[in-house]
Design goal:
Number of helices: 9
Protein name: YecA family protein
Order of helices and strands: HHHHHHHHH
Shape: globular
Strand content: under 5%
Helix content: 40-55%
Radius of gyration: 17 Å
Pfam families: SEC-C (PF02810), UPF0149 (PF03695)
Length: 245
């Protein structure tokens, strides 16, 4: 049995990426870059988020309702093992040397910074109030994620031709965010969070951190815009070509 703290090889990263991109899932699942951003926000955030809460969104980034499509139990176990090792790699880096963390979009042109930051913003939705409080205290800390991970930000970044500036700014902001929450949350044992992933068992449907708002309904923030064009914009699938390399 493979050690769950063993880093994924390049071939294993490709294997996990290929699974997420299979035809039955590619239109709704996260890609590897979005997944890393999503898990990073969850792992360095204000509280522990159980796998049963965050896992459904990996397979269905818009609604958190659809299940993964596995050929059989062996494949399910294989993919879950890769996923947990991918997660533990992020955990170990922030436990030992946060400054060494490098977003996956620097490893190859196939991994998009826009998708990474979109995933990070999605990961903050498990505790909206806490994250919103941080952004009020330190508004510049969220700027790289907004400039690369939202439709409005991407448009501004393209117009200003400064994508690399914001891509470079992500890692330093992660160090600051990690230190901020580390000081404030209760100490928890390092390692894998024990939880039921739901294989072969009935589990309640995934729910959003807030009540469901239709994409074409007025945004509850009162802006007058449709939800998908306002507060719901970061949960939309990234538009074509936002890789920002």
């Amino acid at each position: 049995m493979t050690d769950l703290n063993q880093a994924l090889t390049a071939e294993e990263l490709d294997e996990l990426s290929d699974f997420l991109a299979q035809p039955d899932m590619e239109d709704r699942s996260m890609d590897l870059s979005m997944l890393e951003g999503y898990l990073t926000a969850i792992l360095i955030g204000p509280r522990v988020v159980m796998p049963s809460q965050w896992l459904p969104w990996v397979w269905d980034a818009d609604e958190g309702q659809e299940e993964a499509v596995f050929a059989d139990l062996d494949q399910a176990n294989r993919i879950m093992g890769l996923l947990m090792r991918f997660l533990n790699g992020i955990v170990q880096t922030f436990l030992t040397d946060p400054a060494a963390f490098e977003p996956i979009y620097w490893r190859g042109a196939q991994w998009g910074a826009a998708e990474w930051c979109e995933g990070f913003l999605l990961g903050t939705r498990f505790d909206r109030e806490a994250w919103a409080g941080l952004w009020v205290i330190q508004p510049t800390w969220v700027t790289p994620f907004l400039r690369l991970g939202t439709e409005t930000g991407i448009n501004s970044t393209k117009n200003e031709s400064n994508a690399e500036l914001w891509m470079q700014a992500v890692a330093p902001m992660l160090i600051k965010i990690h230190a901020f929450w580390k000081e404030r949350r209760q100490a928890v044992p390092a390692g894998i969070v024990e939880d039921d992933f739901g294989f072969g068992r009935q589990r309640p449907p995934a729910v959003r951190a807030t009540s469901k708002v239709g994409r074409n309904e007025p945004c509850p923030c009162g802006s007058g815009k449709k939800f998908k064009k306002c507060c719901g914009s970061t949960s939309e699938t990234a538009p074509p070509g936002p890789h920002l390399h």
